[in-house]
Design brief:
It is flat and about 110 Å long. Helices cover 55% and strands 18% of the residues. β5 and β6 form a beta hairpin. With 398 residues, it is an alpha+beta fold. The two termini are 72 Å apart. Strands 4-1-8-7 form a 4-stranded antiparallel sheet, with no helix packed on it.
Amino acid sequence: FFFFQAEDGIRDFCLSRGLGDVYKRQVDEFIKVFLQAEAILKQKVLQIDKRLRDYQKQRAEAETKLEEVRKKEKINNYGIMEGSTLTVTILEAQNLQLEHLRNPLASVVLKLEEQVQNTQNSRRNENPLWNETFTFDVKTGVDDLQVAVLVKTTYDEIVVGRKSISLKDFKDQQRHEEWYDMRDENHQSMSSFRLKIAIQWINSRVRYLNDVLNKWEEYIRGQHEEKLEIANDLNELYTPFPILRPPNGPDEIERIRQRNNDLEDGRVKLNPRIVNSKQLHNANWATYIFIIQALMINFYRADHLSLCIPLYYFMVLLSSRLTPKALRFSKLLIAISVGNDILWLIVNSKHWWFSAHDPGDCRAQQGIKRFVILFSWLQLLLKGVLFTIYHKLDEVFA
């Protein structure tokens, strides 16, 4: 009863005024909550954009390093790179208890492929700390890393624990930090004495940087997916109130969704700053030279198919759509045009070259015909070079 009075606003002035204040407070609270939710979602989008810029920068730097390393890295007969390194960090030990010594001075000796390194003596403690890092050159990767814990006595140093660690467990080139149970001189496991060691073996920088790139791609994909979820939340927030929706709201959501679809389908646009600049530079220059030569031949011989190759390449490049699919189509055009050139040369080259015996041709026409034949053979070679360059650029995507 009071509800309808308040809605009408014409029956009981006092009751209508009281309910109107209630509705006004509810509207104010709703607007406050709405604006807070909008601000939180927009702030999350800004944070994701910042992380995306950082991740993309890190990915670009890793890609540049990968191209530099790929040119220099050499793999030896053991399947690892020349200059392979093993990084070992001795962190701490637990329960170093000896019957005849209390709180002894302890050190750790490391041996790998005739290389020996050791830590400083720790402070007198049953749980000594070192946190010292050592680097070993690895030539074969066959030998185990030998670890020995030494305790200093009054007259000498004695071995109180040993451990042999195989390098096969670190072929993934990631940093592993583990506790290792130490063994005594009889190779029996000691009850509670253990050593914490961090190990990383870089056996191929190319594989390592490829793994790093894959991780950055995974991080970037995750950020795009999270941004799409937030964009959908914003879209739902604005659905009851379309007048409050920003002008670019739906377009932004669709752009993010399309970007995610491109990532899933492998149709990511080429970013010239990320792709190997040398490969792209070579492809551009080879295409420039090719289009000049094709234009010169077309003055006397109609070869429009050859002109389509550079025109298509620059069209997709300028529209930022130079994808693996576009490069493969360009290679297909080159293959078709090569077949067309070979067929034309078989039919015309002999006749045109010896056209000096044709009384219908003047000397200038004879020279032009021979010029076109020479350039057609040269264009065949250039198409082979262009095909190879496009193929290498395609491998960058792979």
